[in-house]
Amino acid sequence: MKDVRRLMLTGWAVILLSSCAGQVEIRSPLPTDITSPRPPESGLPEQIAAFVGVWAGKWDRFVNRHLAGTVGEDIALVVESIMPLTDDSYQAALVYSWGISPVDKWVSPGFTRTTGTIGKEGVLRIGPDRRGFVMTYTLAENRQTLQAEAHGIGSRVDTLSFTLSGVLWRTKLP
After folding, report:
1. CB–CB of 9/1 below 8 Å?
2. Which residues contact 146 (CB under 8 A, 6 or more apart)?
3. Interatomic CA distance for residues 50 and 41, integer angstroms
4. Rg of the chain (C-alpha set)
5. % of the chain surpassing 70 pLDDT
6. Which domains does the chain have, with CATH numbers?
7. What element of type H or E holds 13?
8. DSSP secondary structure letter of residue 143
9. Fewest CB atoms less than 10 Å from the CB: which of 3, 14, 54, 110?
């Protein structure tokens, strides 16, 4: 029953917040030389081309084997361009940006330019990075939100495996 209530509340939150999509602010640092994303290449499938753009939101939920809670860390994703790799996969040039984490205050705000891949299933995948983190972004049917997840596997005894989740909304560069 809890799962049904949580699903219903999440659905209402997405509906309410997606109506404000143009008002979402980017609250994490971006490179000074960033420009608006290029229009997608003609011939890209619509569900792939829809990733191109500026997205902002928060990592909302943290779960590992010992605890769960809210995070509230601001994040932004700028998908600058997408190019075909193979017949059924694509490479995205992007900027990933993060703000101050109320949970991990030792992590400084920053950004990275990187690439990700989008498969025929329509999920943008970034990583694993040098720390072993993998991020995935799934485009909603309305093409105005991305469901975000990050997975990490601790490489030290005191670092635990974890999952982060959140939602990003389509927005504009400041």
Report:
1. no
2. 55, 57, 77, 124, 137, 138, 139, 140, 167, 168
3. 11
4. 16
5. 71
6. 2-171 (2.40.128)
7. helix 2-18
8. S
9. 3
DSSP secondary structure letters along 68-103 = EEEEEEEEEEEEEEEEEEETTEEEEEEEEEE---SS
Q: Which two tokens stand for residue 65?
A: 């084997």
Q: Does residue 158 sit in helix, strand or coil?
A: coil
pLDDT of residue 19: 40
Indicate whether this model's pTM tops 0.90: no
CA distance 21 to 9: 18
Q: For the segment 69-122, what is each residue's pLDDT rounded down to a tens digit?
A: 556 788 999 999 999 999 889 999 999 998 887 766 667 899 999 999 999 899
**How confident is the model over 118-129, as pLDDT tens digits?**
998 999 999 887
